Amino acid sequence: MNIVVTGGAGFIGGNFCHYMTGKYPEDNIICIDKLTYAGNMETLAPIMDKPNFKFYKADITDRDTIYKIFEDENPDIVVNFAAESHVDRSITDPEIFLRTNIIGTSVMLDASRKYGIKRYHQVSTDEVYGDLPLDRPDLFFTETTPLHTSSPYSASKASADLLVQAYARTYNMPCTISRCSNNYGPYHFPEKLIPLIIANAENDKEIPVYGTGENVRDWLYVEDHCIAIDLIIRKGTPGEIYNIGGHNEKTNLEVVKTVIAELGKSEDLITFVTDRAGHDRRYAIDPTKIHNELGWLPTTTFDEGIKKTVKWYMDNREWWENIISGDYQNYYEKMYGNR
Ligand code: NAD
Ligand code: DAU
Prior knowledge:
Bound molecules: nicotinamide-adenine-dinucleotide, 2'deoxy-thymidine-5'-diphospho-alpha-D-glucose
Low-confidence stretches: none
Order of helices and strands: EHEHEHEHHEHEEHEEEHEEHEHHHH
Mean pLDDT: 98
Strand order of the largest sheet: 3-2-1-4-5-6-11
Shape: globular
Oligomer: single chain
Structural class: alpha/beta
Largest sheet: 7 strands, parallel
Distance between the termini: 49 Å
Number of helices: 13
């Protein structure tokens, strides 16, 4: 099978390319990535020479180029990870989120339709459901929870999901959507909470915690997300949505303290800063459907996953030190300078 993976030079798409090229030597993984600030060829370096991996630098909003790649590569399956993914950036500059996440998705859907793809899979997020109150631990997001977005990022992802559903119904396309909770693990860009804690703590820099640190996220080790997507594209039912999450809710403060302890650093680095605008309080996925229908369960506990992640960042310092020594400094100053 020929599988197009967009956004494969990013965090989850990169992990997915590693996973798929290793598990299925008989399949061809064709990665398409624009290499924005979040895309990194170093993430793909370990698999670049594999005979079942191919890379195209291209923008998913560039229709002609995407059609040409489909014509040349004849894909069976498309997995669309490519997106602007950072909520804070969407608050300061929403437009690129609309272009990539909505228009880009429409181009990928059009290409998939034109070239008769057997399965189009959209990688979505639990953020499309909005948030849950902190004092109702009995509530979870299911696949039928109404869309209720908070940030320009989540609004753009929800828009993309609606487009996918519209194409599935109108053109009878074989589409699936997955909505996963917060991922962590190797190759996670240091603007996101867990790698930011690691990079700052290692440099004995303050660790900025938004608001009171009581917001809750439902953390999943990235490989478990990859396993879930692989199951969905092979065994999932066209037209269906699958929530992915492992019932692993933690407050941000708990996460910060766990990572600091793993690094052997001091909690004195924790610094409370101005809250994120519109900050979602709690995300919590109900994964019953993917468990019952596809037999998926997470394989890595939070304790194991954090240990593996911290070890990966210690063993691969060059990967993240190269990032934080470049343009990232301007980003950091803009986001945190006066916070
Ligand atoms: P990321 O920001 O690390 O990577 C995104 C990748 O997409 C980068 O390689 C970037 O270069 C590429 N890209 C951006 N715009 C592009 C364009 N116009 N054309 C081609 N490539 C482009 O993101 P991530 O955290 O790996 O997230 C991947 C997907 O998973 C996203 O769709 C995101 O919404 C979703 N998701 C993420 C999480 C999470 O916790 N990170 C959880 C659930 C869902
Ligand atoms: O839930 C899935 C989503 O998870 C994905 O759709 C997004 O692409 C991904 O970025 C992630 O979104 P979050 O906003 O939850 O992740 P982030 O790492 O930015 O923040 C996690 C929590 O930590 C959030 O409550 C904000 C807080 N935070 C974040 C940063 C960067 C801080 O307190 N301080 C920080 O410096």
